[in-house]
Prior knowledge:
- The chain has 133 residues and is an alpha+beta fold.
- The protein has two domains: 1-62, no CATH class; 65-132.
- It has three helices and six strands.
- It has helices at 16-31, 65-77, 121-132; strands at 38-47, 50-58, 84-87, 91-98, 107-111, 116-119.
- The strands form two sheets. A four-stranded antiparallel β-sheet has the order 3-4-5-6. The chain has a two-stranded antiparallel sheet with strand order 1-2.
- A hairpin with a 2-residue loop joins strand 1 (38-47) and strand 2 (50-58).
- The radius of gyration is 19 Å and the shape is globular.
- The N and C termini lie far apart (56 Å).
- Keywords: Plasmid.
Amino acid sequence: MTTHATTAGIPPVFNVASANAAGDAVKKALASLNIGYELEIGRGSFSGSELSLQLKVRLPGGHNPEQAMFELMCKRHGFDPAAKLHKAGFGSFTLDSYHPRRPKYPWTVTLETGAQYKFTTEAVEDAFARLKS
């Protein structure tokens, strides 16, 4: 295993770019595994030289309640989950998930940059209205 010491002798720390690169490397490594389960890397955080990633393990063909809720609420509100939307001040974004325990801001959207924000139902309805016009 290689060490990642800097020229000044100070041990390196994660930044956004290196954390994303490490997360992508882990995703690529997990994609090649065939252990009989569906593996998915979730959100992560980093501090200093440590990166923590969420790992979801599902039974093959298993039910994903979060995705089912998202699809149900999209259908109920008439939203296309695959649509690319636009909102002034945010730019282009896509719907990511629905959280019923957040009644004021139930929708999570992901910008093209990868940043995620919470939106109200009215804000998402407005974005779809702009898309249709």
